[in-house]
Design a protein that fits this description.
The structure holds 2 protein chains of 2 kinds. In chain A, strands 7-8-9-10-11-12-13-14-15-16-17-18 form a 12-stranded antiparallel β-sheet, covered by helices on one side. A 6-stranded mixed β-sheet of chain A has the order 4-3-2-1-6-5. Chain A is mainly β. Helix content of chain A is 11%, strand content 54%. In chain B, the strands form 2 sheets. A 5-stranded mixed β-sheet of chain B has the order 2-9-8-4-6, with no helix packed on it. In chain B, strands 1-3-7-5 form a 4-stranded antiparallel β-sheet, with no helix packed on it. Classes of the chains: A mainly beta, B mainly beta.
Chain lengths: 253, 117
């Protein structure tokens, strides 16, 4: 007799949901394919996927069944499941280019810097809950000051501007879903960086003449980039995936 | 107290997870039913269409079990349902062969289940 059971399927650090699983007559837990796809990112070929089959297919992943909590914890520290890879990529996109103010607690801040040539720099500012930052820099020897204003209302958006008598530079960053964009303006020149992730493929392009395609299929990452007329290829492996934002570089020799 | 369950719980998007503990010194068999609330004295109305997992189980002394619920019928936010918990002490074994009278006290708790949007 098949026993239907409600199970909290949780991919630790990523997400989860309560799924309508079932126990087979020989007490094997089976998970519905649709929920396995939504939570783990896998696409089973059968409507039901047995837990032992899943565990055998992914030996690097830990599946912990807690019967008293009706909870199946899935721990994927190596990032081999598609859902883990996608979540890490989302986090990376949201964090890339985030201003430092977003990582700080609110409150006033300041600094005094001096060197033995007689130059000094004063900085004073206010950070409001890690969302808004207003600061001013003053160089006493030059009698010159610069202000900076920045807002990061949520993790996917940040805007900043700085100047003296008028705005001299500005920057904006948007990370939404599979897309990421970073734009800067300074001295009348605009630079624009953008990235779009399509499953395991991330495409990065910049008006600074940088182009990069990154294919991640754990544990391998393959990158093909071009900048300044030079094409670079990189194949890497290991627990730390290559960043899709940075062109692989070979030091001059 | 024989067992511990939450007196009030909330069904969020039709789902709820309710812990139950056996704080007595004997094993108990627990059954759970989801019913509609009524104006009768026991508040137990008709059975609601819901998946209860597990609907029946045994708890050893000191054990805990999470019971997961999923409502399978439409219910407006603010609807009050009831979870009927029945605790039956397990019959002791190896108590000798002499004739004796045993009184089994079955306890029933009726807790509130609010439907949340």
């Amino acid at each position: 007799m098949i026993l239907q059971v409600l199970v909290a399927l949780e991919l630790v650090g990523v997400g989860g949901r309560t799924v309508e699983a079932r126990f087979t007559p020989d007490s094997i837990l089976e998970l519905p394919a649709a929920d396995v796809h939504d939570v783990l990112g896998l696409t089973p070929e059968t409507p039901w996927l047995a837990l032992p089959t899943l565990a055998a297919a992914y030996p690097a992943v830990t599946f912990t069944w807690l019967p008293r909590e009706l909870r199946l914890l899935v721990q994927d520290p190596r990032g081999v499941l598609p859902a883990t890879i996608a979540a890490r990529a989302r986090t990376l996109r949201a964090a890339q280019g985030t201003p430092g103010l977003a990582y700080a607690f609110g409150g006033p801040f300041g600094s005094i810097t001096a060197d033995d040539s007689g130059r000094s720099r004063l900085e004073l500012g206010l950070n409001l809950r890690g969302r808004v930052s207003l600061s001013g820099d003053y160089l006493p020897a030059a009698h010159r000051g610069v202000w900076t204003a920045a807002v990061a209302p949520w993790s996917g958006l940040s805007l900043s501007a700085s100047g003296a008598a008028r705005v001299e530079s500005a920057a904006g960053r948007v990370a939404a879903g599979p897309a990421w964009m970073f734009a800067t303006w300074e001295a009348g020149a605009v630079a624009l960086d953008g990235l779009v992730a399509l499953g395991p493929v991330a495409v990065f392009a910049s008006t600074r003449d940088v182009y990069l395609v990154t294919l991640t299929r754990s544990p391998l990452t393959v990158q093909l980039g071009r900048s300044g007329g030079i094409t670079t290829t990189r194949v890497s492996f290991g627990p730390q995936p290559a960043s899709p934002f940075f062109l692989p570089a070979i030091p001059p020799h | 107290m024989l067992a511990q369950v939450a007196a009030v719980a909330t069904l969020l998007h039709g789902d709820a997870a309710l812990p139950v503990a056996n704080s007595s010194r004997e094993p108990v068999t627990v059954t759970v039913q989801i019913v509609h609330d009524t104006l009768t004295r026991d508040h137990i109305g008709r059975a609601a269409r819901a998946l209860v997992s597990p609907a029946a189980f045994t708890l050893a002394p000191g054990d805990r079990q999470v019971v997961r619920l999923r409502l399978k019928e439409p219910a407006a936010p603010g609807t009050l349902l009831r979870a009927v918990w029945t605790f039956t002490p397990a019959a002791p074994v190896g108590q000798g062969s002499g004739a004796r009278v045993r009184l089994t006290l079955v306890t029933r708790f009726v807790s509130k289940l609010w439907v949340s949007p």
